[in-house]
């Protein structure tokens, strides 16, 4: 039986990742040929020392030192390196990191600012501190500690705080073309709607046409731009983000399914139930019952 793995990430089984929500690993010294510039369905952050080139959307970052990197799954990316590298990486899903108490810092981090550089150079002192955090995550990852998921989340948050302290958001990205700029604006506008804090304030933008109107472009142009840059349609991005928020609300709040449906812009709970089941394969109530 074949195993659904990802090249360059040792021991990563996609199905296991979906169940646990995270994986921490030491980087292999040799990754082989660079991967295609595609999307993945998980976030990634790491500490690397080596001679590398990171292709991230329309950006190219060449590094020959020690640095932190942050990868957003909405941005096509790949990595090429020359010679041996060393370091650590942590991979996690949207659901794992989307607890209500952490969404504020995440929304202001390099993980959600698709236009910021994904690479942050470190000096020796900074590298030593971050190394210690990754080593702690790696040690805990292999243990049976009941709260290791929560400890990993805290470590991830600490690394993000350090990244923001070392290098605040830059907002100086030069886009390769107009399509890249529109795709970036769409991604930021989509993410700014979350987290949903009150059921009385439902989502404003739920369709490709809603976003096109907000961005003052034709919907066909928005759809072409997003598809060209990310490989996914505008509607798929919206559906995935609404579904991720629905899961977070079901798992981390005591809101009724009806309240969640209204907060996410559905006129009737039945519409939300059908929508959620079509995308996830289960109903909202079943997901809530399966909550650990």
Question: How are the SSEs ordered, and which strands pair?
Answer:
Layout: H1 14-20, E1 22-26, E2 43-56, E3 59-71, E4 77-92, H2 94-97, H3 103-107, E5 119-121, H4 124-141, H5 148-166, H6 178-191, H7 208-215, H8 219-230, H9 234-252, H10 257-263, H11 269-280, H12 284-289
Antiparallel strand pairs: 1-4, 2-3, 2-4, 3-5
Number of β-strand runs: 5
Q: How many DSSP H or I helices?
A: 12
Under CATH, the homologous superfamily of the largest domain reads: Regulatory protein AraC
- Helix amount: 40-55%
Highest-level CATH class of the largest domain:
Mainly Beta
Major sheet: 5 strands, antiparallel
What is the quaternary state of this protein? single chain
Cα(first) to Cα(last) distance is 29 Å
> How much of the polypeptide forms β-strand, as a percent range?
15-25%
3D shape: globular
Q: What strand order characterises the main sheet? A: 1-4-2-3-5
- Class inferred from helices and paired strands: alpha+beta
Query: In the CATH classification, which architecture of the largest domain applies?
Result: Sandwich
What Rg, in angstroms, do the CA atoms define? 19 Å
Question: How many distinct domains?
Answer: 2
Q: List the uncertain runs.
A: 1-11, 31-39
Give the overall pLDDT as a whole number: 79
**CATH topology-level name of the largest domain:** Jelly Rolls
Detailed description of the structure:
This protein has helices at residues 14-20, 94-97, 103-107, 124-141, 148-166, 178-191, 208-215, 219-230, 234-252, 257-263, 269-280, 284-289; strands at residues 22-26, 43-56, 59-71, 77-92, 119-121. Helix content is 45%, strand content 17%. It has a 5-stranded antiparallel sheet. By secondary structure, it is an alpha+beta fold. Helix 4 (124-141) runs antiparallel to helix 5, helix 6 crosses helix 8 and helix 7 (208-215) crosses helix 8 (219-230). The chain contains 12 helices and 5 strands. The two termini are 29 Å apart. The chain folds into 2 domains: 14-166, Jelly Rolls (Sandwich), CATH 2.60.120.280; 178-289, Homeodomain-like (Arc Repressor Mutant, subunit A, Orthogonal Bundle).
């Amino acid at each position: 039986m074949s195993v659904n793995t990802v090249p360059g990430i040792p021991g990563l089984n996609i199905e296991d990742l979906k169940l646990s929500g995270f994986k921490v690993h030491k980087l292999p010294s040799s990754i082989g040929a660079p991967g295609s510039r595609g999307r993945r369905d998980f976030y990634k952050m790491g500490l690397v020392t080596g001679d590398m080139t990171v292709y991230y959307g329309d950006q190219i970052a060449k590094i020959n030192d020690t640095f932190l990197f942050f990868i957003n799954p909405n941005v096509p990316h790949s990595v090429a390196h020359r010679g041996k590298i060393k370091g650590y990486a942590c991979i996690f899903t949207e659901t794992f990191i989307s607890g209500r108490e952490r969404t504020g810092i995440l929304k202001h981090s390099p993980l959600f600012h698709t236009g910021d550089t994904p690479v942050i150079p470190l000096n020796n002192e900074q590298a030593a501190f971050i190394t210690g955090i990754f080593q702690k995550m790696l040690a805990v990852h292999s243990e049976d500690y009941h709260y290791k998921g929560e400890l990993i989340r805290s470590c991830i948050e600490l690394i993000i705080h350090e990244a923001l302290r070392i290098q605040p958001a830059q907002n100086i990205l030069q886009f390769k073309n107009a399509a890249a700029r529109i795709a970036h604006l769409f991604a930021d506008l989509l993410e700014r709607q979350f987290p949903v804090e009150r059921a009385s304030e439902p989502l404003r933008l739920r369709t490709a046409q809603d976003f096109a109107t907000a961005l003052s472009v034709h919907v066909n142009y928005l759809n072409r731009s997003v598809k060209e840059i990310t490989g996914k349609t505008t509607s798929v991005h919206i559906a995935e983000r609404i579904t991720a928020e629905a899961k977070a609300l079901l798992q981390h709040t005591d809101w009724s399914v009806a309240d969640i449906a209204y907060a996410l812009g559905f006129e009737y709970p039945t519409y939300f139930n059908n929508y959620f089941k079509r995308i996830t394969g289960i109903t909202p109530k079943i997901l809530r019952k399966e909550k650990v």
